[in-house]
Amino acid sequence: MHAQVEQFLDHMAYERGLAENTRAAYASDLAAFVGFLQRSGAARSFATVTRTHVAAFLEEQRRLGFRASTRARRLIAVKVLFAFLAAEGVVPVDVVAVLNAPAKGRVLPRTLSEQEVARLLASVAGDTALAVRDRSLLELLYACGLRVSEAVSLQVGDVRLDEGVVACIGKGDKQRLVPLGAVAAAWLRRYLAEARPRLARGNAVENTLYVTVRGARFTRQGVFAMLRKRATGAALDRSVSPHVLRHCFASHLLAHGAQIRAIQEMLGHADIATTQIYTHVDQGLVHATHARFHPRHD
């Protein structure tokens, strides 16, 4: 079964252009599924797997404490695998095609207040190359709402300071232009002029925008670690990640009157329903707006 999973992953990577992070997620989810089949002795091959086996796998995942969103994602991986196996004639019928994903419910994104974001940004002070780099990156994440994978993939040429925008490649290899804002643009200019040359150390090969102290590309894991360190320094007791700053970008824009369609474009969401979750974040704002503007509010 492991060999067939690898064949499937290679097919998705080379034929469908699957991103490396997505491939890794598929591999992890399918490893959990195959591990369950082997531990339980439920099936010795994919051809003998039934809907009951898949349902038992999902139930085990629930008992182990995995969230509904994780279980739903793992079912999707199993479904895509079996669709591939059925098309290749490895299994006689796609037994999981009619299975429904576990109900995930509405999970509201975690955000920081505007004051907390300001405290986080202001806490990154100093003239060292690392301080300027980190402040520039945090300002960029908050100003543009980029995914961390988009931020670490930026090249120097993607920053168009004369136009005040950054060009990034999002999901589905779709490029979008996102406004920088004056503050983020100023920190980017400073980073490019002062900090990056010292970090890159004359490395002409590496053209990535954000680099490490060794002049190498800044990784996703590196950004997470940096942000945790900076959040601790700002005395923020909540878990702060790059995606939290993306949520802050969207919810703070909405709170200041930005149109949901514009926010959708800047975030790179294919479906506006994904963006509309931010309309449910700040219930205090909803009540305050109603109290201020509705003619029948007492």
Written account of the structure:
The chain is built from 13 helices and three strands, in the order αααααααβββαααααα. 56% of the residues lie in helices and 4% in strands. By secondary structure, the protein is mainly alpha-helical. It has a three-stranded antiparallel sheet. The chain has two domains: 2-87, Tyrosine recombinase, N-terminal domain (DNA polymerase, domain 1); 114-289, Orthogonal Bundle (hpI Integrase, Chain A).
SSE inventory with pairings:
Blueprint: H1 2-15, H2 20-40, H3 51-63, H4 68-87, H5 114-122, H6 129-144, H7 148-152, E1 159-160, E2 165-169, E3 175-179, H8 182-200, H9 220-233, H10 242-255, H11 260-267, H12 272-275, H13 283-293
Antiparallel strand pairs: 1-2, 2-3
Helix pairs in contact: 1-2, 2-4, 3-4, 6-8, 6-10
| CATH architecture descriptor of the largest domain | Orthogonal Bundle
Distance, first to last CA: 66 Å
Instruction: Report the C-alpha radius of gyration, rounded.
Output: 23 Å
Assign the CATH topology of the largest domain. hpI Integrase, Chain A
Q: Globular, elongated, flat, extended or rod-shaped: what is the shape?
A: globular
Overall pLDDT metric = 84
Number of strands: 3
Would you identify the CATH H-level superfamily of the largest domain?
Intergrase catalytic core
Helical percent range?
55-70%
Could you spell the SSE succession in H and E letters? HHHHHHHEEEHHHHHH
Count of spatially separate domains = 2
List segments where confidence is low: pLDDT < 50 over at least 5 consecutive residues. Answer: none
How would you describe the oligomerization state of the chains in this entry? single chain
- Tell me what portion of residues adopts beta-strand conformation: under 5%
Q: What's the story with the biggest beta sheet?
A: 3 strands, antiparallel
The CATH class designation of the largest domain is Mainly Alpha
Class computed from helices, strands and strand pairing: mainly alpha
Strand order of the largest sheet: 1-2-3
